[in-house]
Design brief:
By secondary structure, the chain is mainly beta. Helix content is about 10%, strand content about 25%. It binds N'-Formylkynurenine and zinc ion (ZN) (2 copies).
Length: about 210
């Protein structure tokens, strides 16, 4: 039986955070050290910190909230492909891969080298890629980057176009140790009733070898 491979960013105060957004914090409200019977902590963080999924409500007031998202999107077979340091994610680049029947596509770019620093710029997903991926059957796109759009984008065209084509978004995965191939993915969001996004514990298990 193959091991689960953790592809999540560990969460602590140092986890790189979107500029101006809420960083991670954890504190103990009750402690054994102070005579309590248990340690009980409290966490505070942005819903878009670290490895996380976006709900459509993130960029559309009428969009689905996290609790409404189908769990099938986040559990099941996934293909990992390597695209080292792309300028952008275009149809031109992706058409070199056989993606027929791929439901969950995870792309390893290695573009975010120093995880302790939030990147200054990232390769964006070209909005036209959405239709191309949807035709292949993709319903989840995962990147080792903090967004699918340029970081200063206000219109978020890739976010909108992906969802318009039924493709959900997983951001900030760590794939440095993951070779291209077929895996089983588990990356369930928290049951946040009003959530615009959610941190996930993302993990892969090798299949088919
Ligand atoms: N789209 C990004 C997050 C994002 O855009 C964002 C996150 C926190 C604070 C501000 C943000 N965008 C501001 O224009 C994401 O999906 O994680
Ligand atoms: Zn996000
Ligand atoms: Zn996003």
């Amino acid at each position: 039986m193959d091991k689960w491979l953790d592809i999540s960013q560990p969460l602590n105060e140092k986890t790189a955070c979107w500029p101006g957004d809420t960083p991670f914090s954890y504190k103990l409200n009750w402690t054994k050290q102070d005579g309590g019977s248990v340690n009980v902590g409290q966490i505070n963080l942005s819903t878009h910190l670290g490895t996380h999924i976006d709900a459509p409500f993130h960029f559309d007031d009428k969009g689905k909230k996290v609790i409404e998202l189908n769990l099938d999107i986040y559990i099941g077979p996934a293909r990992v492909i390597c695209l080292p340091n792309p300028q952008c994610f275009s149809i031109h680049l992706l058409q070199n891969f056989d993606l027929d029947g791929v439901e969950r596509l995870l792309i390893r770019t290695g573009s975010w080298q120093d995880r302790s620093i939030f990147p200054e710029s990232i390769p964006p997903v070209e909005p036209e890629l959405s239709g191309f991926l949807a035709e292949k059957g993709v319903k989840l796109l995962g990147l080792d980057l903090p967004s699918v759009d340029e970081l200063d984008s206000k219109e978020l065209p890739a976010h909108h176009q992906l969802y318009a084509h039924g493709i959900h978004i997983l951001e900030g995965i760590i794939l440095n140790q993951i070779e291209a191939g077929e895996y089983f993915l588990s990356a369930l969001p928290l049951p946040l009733m009003d959530g615009d996004g959610s941190p996930v514990r993302a993990a892969l298990k090798r299949i088919g070898i």
